[in-house]
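User: Please fill in residues for this 435-position structure.
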């Protein structure tokens, strides 16, 4: 760890982290938040409201992690909190069907163009694992194609050349994944349609191709023009299913997700994050024909004690109903443009070459001078500089993702004033990093 990354402020976060490290692997319940990608001590958060979070030492940050995507309305939104209070009074879990689940399914079906039926689960990981089983069960094939640097949760079949925390920690293929299973996962470079075509020439038995239509887990990497259309055309022609992992992009880039924005329809869609309104939720959906293969309608098994939990449904449904107002996406687009232009300018003023990728309210500034279009180009970014910049921003009261290989998110609570304060903080932070 360089001295710029070393965190010497002491305080309650330090104290809690010292205790946490004795109790939880790496002191955390999910790896990236441990700050290993940037060095130093993770801030322990006491509370959050709107676009800001306050740590246990009382320091407030403008937050661009947004719980890794779900908080599109900002933290502790009054309407979501009040709906949750009402739901709480009726009990916390029944293990039996509720009206809320029907309303949630209707909301998702009405919003997401390719989805006619949906199954609620408890996380994005569960959603992608279930979608893969569905694809394998339906086609009777075993192999799966994924893209280098894309991350689809920690399911065995998907921890191969994965992004997010495993890329940050340099563990893209995890021990504990049986080799026999990993062999069934074929990887190809994102944004390379010819590479995908070659995979189909070289392999038979491919059940599905799973893709983040806009990647968030190697940092934000958008598809080249026409790329998603090519992926759709190839999978259709080769008779394999196409799974869009819209855990990050669903209800984020547009109400109907990346499939609405790019007008490319997958066979199966996985969702999470925003659909839970900040509570643990995932879902997968598809046409009626496909989804009716899931038990108990069909024979492909998948189940969950807390699936469709009433509190989670209430928080999610309240959030999704607010997002019926499509002008929200126009506002988020304007906010994204203002912030990213400002930060790119600040970097340039300080003499840094950065590449900022952005789609709507999802963005990443990479410390590189070359376009970032896939994992190879993302991995060329200067992670040490990112770590220094991250800490300089933290010092200035801005909480970015503690890894170069994660997307940042803007919420409706990020006012112009907060965005401008972030740009000003960026100016100071870039100057500090430049020394
Ligand atoms: N999957 C999350 C980011 N893409 C991980 C967050 C964490 O480790 O806390």
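Assistant: Residues filled in for all 435 positions:
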């Amino acid at each position: 760890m360089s001295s710029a990354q070393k965190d010497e402020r002491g305080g309650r976060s330090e104290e809690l982290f010292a205790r946490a490290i004795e109790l939880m692997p790496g002191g955390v319940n999910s790896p990236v938040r441990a700050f290993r990608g940037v060095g130093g001590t993770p801030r322990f958060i006491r509370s959050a409201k709107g676009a800001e979070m306050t740590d246990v030492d009382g320091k407030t940050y403008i937050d661009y992690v947004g719980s890794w995507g779900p908080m599109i309305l900002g933290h502790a939104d009054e309407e979501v909190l009040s709906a949750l209070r009402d739901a709480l009074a009726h009990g916390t879990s029944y293990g039996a069907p509720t009206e809320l689940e029907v309303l949630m399914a209707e909301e998702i079906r009405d919003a997401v163009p390719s989805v006619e039926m949906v199954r609620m689960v408890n996380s994005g990981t569960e959603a992608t694992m279930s979608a893969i089983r569905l694809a394998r069960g339906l086609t009777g094939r075993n192999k799966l194609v994924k893209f280098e640097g894309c991350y689809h949760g920690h399911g065995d079949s998907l921890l191969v050349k994965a992004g997010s925390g495993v890329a940050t920690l340099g563990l893209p293929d995890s021990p504990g994944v049986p080799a026999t299973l990993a062999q069934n996962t074929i990887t190809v470079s994102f944004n390379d349609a010819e590479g995908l075509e070659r995979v189909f020439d070289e392999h038979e038995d491919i059940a599905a191709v799973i893709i983040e239509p806009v990647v968030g887990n190697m940092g934000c990497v958008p598809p080249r023009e026409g790329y998603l259309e090519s992926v759709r055309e190839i999978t259709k022609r080769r008779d394999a299913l196409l799974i869009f992992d819209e855990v990050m992009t669903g209800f984020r880039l547009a109400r109907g997700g990346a499939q609405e924005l790019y007008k490319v329809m997958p066979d199966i869609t996985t969702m999470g994050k925003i659909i839970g309104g900040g509570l643990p939720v995932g879902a997968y959906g598809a046409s009626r024909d496909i989804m009716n293969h899931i038990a108990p309608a069909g024979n492909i098994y998948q189940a969950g004690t807390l699936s469709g939990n009433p509190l989670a449904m209430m928080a999610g449904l309240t959030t999704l109903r607010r997002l019926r107002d499509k002008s929200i996406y126009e506002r988020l687009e304007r906010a994204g443009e203002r912030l990213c232009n400002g930060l790119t300018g600040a970097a340039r003023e300080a003499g840094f070459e950065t590449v900022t990728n952005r789609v709507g309210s999802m963005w990443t500034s990479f410390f590189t001078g070359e376009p970032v279009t896939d994992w190879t180009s993302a991995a060329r970014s200067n992670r040490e500089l990112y770590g220094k910049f991250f800490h300089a921003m933290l010092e200035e009261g801005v909480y970015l993702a503690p890894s170069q290989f994660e997307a940042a998110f803007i919420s409706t609570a990020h006012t112009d004033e907060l965005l401008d304060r972030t740009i000003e903080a960026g100016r100071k932070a870039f100057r500090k990093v430049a020394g």
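For context: The radius of gyration is 21 Å.
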